[in-house]
Each structure stands twice: as structure tokens, then as C-alpha cells.
Amino acid sequence: xxxxxxRVAAFAALLLVVALVxxxxxxxxSLPNIDGEDQVAGLSSRATIERDASGIPVITASNRSDLAxxxxxxxGQDRFFQMDLIRRQAAGELSALVGAAAVDVDKAxxxxxxxxxxADVLAEASxxxxxxxxxxxxxxxxxxxxxxxxxxxxxxxxxxxxxWHAEDSLLVVYAMFVQLNDSxxxxxxxxxxxxxxxPRELYQWMYPxxxxxxxxxxxxxxxxxxxxxxxxxxxxxxxxxxxxANEVGKAPLxxxxxxxxxxxxxxxxxxxxxxxxxxxxxxxNIYYRARLVQTDNAPRxxxxxxxxxxxxxxxxxxxxxxxxxxNSYGDYTDAVLLRPGEREGTYRTSTGDREFEVYREVIEVKxxxxxxxxxxxxxxxxxREDANYPDGEIAVSWIAHKPESVNLNLMQLxxxxxxxxxxxxxxxxxxxxxxxxxxxxxxxxxxTIAGKxxxxxxxxxxxxxxxxDGAGWTGWVLPSDYPRIYNPESGRIWTANSRVVDGAALxxxxxxxxxxxxxxxxxxxxLFARNTFTPADMLAIQYDDRAIFLAPWRELLLSVLxxxxxxxxxxxxxxxxxxxxxxxxxxxxxxxxxxxxxxxLEVQQRLxxxxxxxxxxxxxxxxxxxxxxxFEAALWAAVTEQPEHLLPADxxxxxxxxxxxxxxxxxxxxxxxxxxxxxxxxxEVNTAxxxxxxxxxxxxxxxxxxxxxxxxNGDANLPKAQxxxxxxxxxxxxxxxxEAGSLLHMPTGQSGHPMSGFxxxxxxxxxxxxASPFLPGPAAYTLTLLPETS
Length: 790
Prior knowledge:
Layout lengths: L1 H27 L7 E5 L6 E5 L5 E5 L2 H28 L3 H4 L4 H8 L3 H11 L2 H19 L6 H6 L8 H15 L5 H10 L4 H7 L48 E7 L10 E9 L7 E7 L5 E7 L6 E5 L3 E7 L5 E5 L8 E2 L6 E2 L1 E7 L7 E7 L5 E2 L9 E5 L20 H8 L7 E7 L4 E6 L3 E4 L14 E5 L7 E3 L5 E4 L7 H7 L8 H11 L6 H8 L8 H10 L2 H5 L2 H11 L10 H21 L1 H7 L12 H10 L12 H20 L52 E3 L2 E4 L8 E3 L17 H6 L12 E7 L3
Parallel strand pairs: 1-26, 3-6
Antiparallel strand pairs: 2-3, 2-26, 4-5, 4-22, 5-23, 5-24, 6-7, 7-8, 8-9, 9-17, 10-16, 11-12, 13-14, 15-16, 17-18, 18-21, 19-20, 24-25
Helix pairs in contact: 2-6, 2-8, 5-8, 6-8, 17-18, 18-21
């Protein structure tokens, strides 16, 4: 009997080994072939994909259609699963791949009906544009089909990959709209709740249009409004009962840094353009490095970052110009307050009552029943079912719902010959509106907005508004009316998601909840600290983690923890010593930085919560409010002027309030982390969590799929904007025309396959801030694509 048991166990072990080997071979079979030849349908002439030792390709073809095909082929080989997730997310079709866990996500995206809108855009596109997207799609499918087995993620999900279609590339654009715009008019709805309850003077003080931290290209910083008096607001009767901040501040803005200096400030006389686009980080990275070379009678040579799912270099250089983006945070979404019509199921408009258009959306769910729900649309946009606005239903008017908001004019940058020409092109581009910064080989630099800007009439765009009387959007700003800066006297241009302009230009762009200007100001000041620049100088600014924004808060904290107060309390004495001896950077080893940061966040949480108590009393404790990105102006005025009427009821003076905050933070650190306060380094919480979407679901160690969990420097409100899973999705500094002397790096690696040597290649340079070349290196692998013969 024992022999039989042993034989059965051995046989079972053998079966397990065989199964593992088969699984390993199947997974390995999805690694792409990157050397040799492949005959493919859909290609008109020979094309090559030459990858360097890090997997970065130079893709060469004789015409633009074949170049799109070959780019799609490389994307399909290296990143198909990533592309599939992006298109499915935009279309609200994730549940069909991963099951019921994604139904709520799918509903949120189906609200926008992007699949139908992509079809509408494609139907209106030119024949040339359609042909280009179809050629790219054919290349993606050829690249996918060249794999010996399907990408390994589909084995895990027990699914088959579906072919790529031309309209899927438009879904990728819509996915970026959602990342970069307010897709549900949350700003207006949440601010509107506060506006409807708070005294007007208090609301304006809490929601200013700018602060002394501003560093605009046009105009000046904004002064702080006077603190409203006790006849307007008093916290003396309001207890301090805010939920603890626990180091959690505002979610980071999906944004970026970019800047340029003119040729007068470089040794070569060329402009120098820098860009680091801040987005959520995962494995693989959202971008894919490439150099695209076209060799026919309309040659082009473009290097930078591509977006898998799209056949273009998104940001980079074409040897004559370089360009990059930051999210502009203009106002491209509005909340329309609906008025019921006389008949049920109708709403009022300036031309009479109208019925809602109702669309029945059906979400297919893997392993479960399909889920159906309805989307009601108005002439202005779809109706939010979850707004819970006290004055009525809210429809969302958003540029992404308009077919004119998406086009392929970005491709024109591939052959733009000057910064001035690039600015003209940018004003016609259909994309999420961005601060567009460019420079050329002749030394010229410029800024404008890339993307469509709506014109607005007759309403306050910061709040939900009734459009039934004729107010609303009246069309698009003409390209000739876009704000623009060209060759400023200083020879410097900078943007970082904060207010860029003032006056009429700001009215054109609008306030879409742009960022506090601290990061922008630090970049601007660094640019004015030098008179000559190299790419290495620019990388130093991109990696700048100096704690300039928090320095005044440290001084405030030290004044509160005076030697007399701290001397009688060992915990306070240690806290003060750590703050006093801080490393003035968002560095992993800095304890003092983390303590000052936590102190500010806790003070901010408590004062904002107390100030908005009347709103919760009127609308319920679970009401969702929005704290302005400019609230720092009001907050700093309160903590420095220290008026008695802004002190919550529990305290006799401001020092008592601040000491309570310090003790709350000490308790939080002790209860959450334990150990010694001196061990609470910034790197303990700012540790990389850059993960594969399926890493938690795979029967293998996460370290095989995720990037290393390294402690990172950087934080919000400084140039090195960095969190555990948020940060620079690329960094480059490029001389147009001298790309060989320029820099670029990117988190993660080129490949989406963990068994590939390219999966992590280059990531360590990104983490450590080491320079790496802008151009791909010498070809280590060459794949030649040949037209299929009959």
C-alpha cells in the first residue's frame, strides 16, 4: 500500500511539474520575435524595427501608412494587453474580461458612451486619417498574431485577445480625457454645495482664484483676501471633531512640469525643451519610447514617447522642433442645472421643453449575467444620477462629448519646421487641452494651449448653472484667439498645472481647479538662478525635491514647540529636535520633512472641516465637498494672523490648538507604525508601488511582475512630484537638432512581458535620476517586415 501511495504521489508530482513546464512554455511563447523577418498583409513596402539593448526601437518605413503599421506591430508585440485594458476601460467593457468586480467601473465609463462617440468621430474623419488608423490597427493585429501564444495575461484570465480596430485608437484618446479632465463636473457640484450655504465673503476667502504662490507667465501672483470678520464666521461654537488627516492630503493632480529656454541661454543657440508628465504609474508604463523614421519624398524623423494604441509620438522632437505638455486645468466641463419641463420626462431649454434621449447600455460580465442600465442625455450632455445636488438634477457638458474635440492634427507636428508653426498646429489639435511648450533648432520658444476651448456666455462657470434661458456654450474659441507667448524677453517659459495667465486670457481658458503655484514657482526660480543651460541642468530641476513649500510651516511648528514647552515633555522635545534638524528635502531619509508635512495636513483638515460645518448641517454629514487647490492662502492667513474667531471651541488659544495637532500626529505614528518617532522616515510611506494590473491575482511572487518597492524622493508641491504609484511617466530635456546630446528616461521598461529583458530596462535610471540618452542606442536586434506575397 505504501508503495502505491508513493507511486501516486510521485505521479501527481510529475503531473504538476509537467503542468508547470507547459505553463512556462506557453507564457514564454508570448515573448515576441525581435530578430529576423516576417511577411505580413497590409504593408506596401519593406519596414524595419531595430531595437537597442534596452528594447527601444527605431521604426523605419518608406511612407507614413507603413510607418503606422510598423509602429502598431511593435506595440502589438510588446504592449497588447495594456492597450486592451485602456480601450476596454474607456468603452466600459472591462467586465467582459475580468468579471463582476469591474461593473461599477464600466458603468462610470458607459455614462460617456465613448464607443459610440469614437464611431462618430471616425465617420467624420478624412480618408487619410481613417486609412492611417486602419493601417496602425492592421499592424497591431499582425504584431499580436506573430506571437507563438497569446499574451500571458489572457491565460490567467482564461480569455482570448480580441482584434484591434481603428476606432479603438480613439478610445485611447478618450481614456486620456478622463485622466486629465473633470469628466463629471465634480468641481462645480462640490463647490456649489458650499456656495449655497456659506456666506459669500467666507466662500470667496476659502475659494480664491490665486495665491502669493502663483508664478504665471502672464500677470502676477494674487494677494490674499482679508480674513472675514466674526460677524461673517466664527468657529468659537464649533467643536474640533474633524476625522484625522493621517498624512493623507489632496490626491495628486494628473499633471506635469514643462519648460523651455531660448537659444540665447544655451551654448549651441538651440532651444532646450524639458517635460515630465505626471500620471499614475503601473507596469508597464503608459508610454513607450520610439524613434519613427520615414524615408520617402516626405521624410520625417521623430523621437520621444508614443502612447500604445496610437500611431504617433506624443511628446518629443522631430530634429527641428521639440514639444511637451502639462495639463492646463482650464475649465472644459460644466454642470448644467436642469429645470423640469411641464410634462414628466422633459426638461426646459431656451427653445421649449425637450424629452431626454435614453440609451440602454448593456455590460457583458464574464461568468455572470449581463448588467443593463440607462443613460439619459440632454442637448448639453448626459445626466448624472449620483450628483445629489440640492437644487436639482445635473447634466454634464464636457468637451469630450463633442466630436470636434478629437482629431489627428497631432501628426502635423512630425514635420513642423519652427516653434511658430508648432504653436499654430497646437491650436487646431483635438486632445485633452494642454499647456503646449515648444522650442526649435533656431532658438525660438513658445507657449499656447493645445486642444479645443469652448466659448461660454451668461453663467458662472465655477458653479452649477441653469442653461434653460439661453446661457451656456456657444461654440469653440477660434485658433486666432488662443492665448500665446512667443520668445519672451526673459528667454524662459514654464508651466506646472497652476495658473499660467491672467485677465482676458484666463477668461478664455477658465479655472478648472488649477494647482497651487508652489511647484511652478520653484521651477521658475530655478530657471532664473542660471543664465546658461544643458540637459543635465534641466534634469536637476526635474529631480528637485527641496522642501521650499513646507519651510514656513516648519518655522511655525518650531515657534509653537518653543524650548520652554518642549523641555517639560520628552515626546515634544524629541518631536522638536527632529523638526529642527530636518533634511530640508522630500528625501527618503528625512524624518523632519515627514513631521512638518503631517502637521500641515492635520491643521488643514481640522480648519477646513470646522469652516464647512454649516454645509454638513444643511446637507448631511456625508456631503462630499471640494477643498480648493488655492485654500493654502486662507489657511496660512488663519494660522499666522491667528484671529480668535477662527479658533475652534475646544481651545483657549492657537498654541493649544497646534499642540493638540502635534500630539495627535505623535499618537497616529505610534498607533500605526509603532517603534521610535525617529524611525518615521519619509521613505517609509513614499515607497514605490508600481504594479502590474494582475500582480495580486497571479499564482507567482509579485516581485516577478512589479517594480522594486524602493523608497522614493519627491512629493506634491515641488518639482519632483512623486508618490508611491504616481509620478513622472517620462522625463526628457532635448535640443531639437541635437537629439544625440539630449536626455530621456522612463519608469519601468519597454516590454509588458515579465520574462523579457526589456521589462525593467531603464527603470533604475528613472528612480535614481541618472541621465540616459534621448535617442535609442545601436541596434542589437532587427526585425524586418515584408509585404505578404501572393
